[in-house]
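Kindly go through the following sequence and its backbone structure tokens. Advise at your convenience whether the structure tokens fit the sequence:

___
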Amino acid sequence: MKSTLRFPADGGTVECLYTEAIDLQKLGPLQITRATDIRFCGPNQQWQVHEAGTDRVLFSNPSRSECLAWELHNLQPRSNS
């Protein structure tokens, strides 16, 4: 996976999929907000990817690993090239 970090022109918030590939703590204090939450839904026996802070289901699957893979694929920064 190629690591990319883009800074907005206004110098404000950087949005990225966080990994340890780039040591962001070297830039200063971090404030991290998750984009999604992965929760298990007992009634349908599936893992669900929820938009953080909401009950909106973005993806569901019996496999938590598939939900993690969905996050990784769908939350990657889009290439401008």
Remarks:
- The mean pLDDT is 81.
- The longest strand covers residues 36-41.
- The chain is about 15% helix and 20% strand.
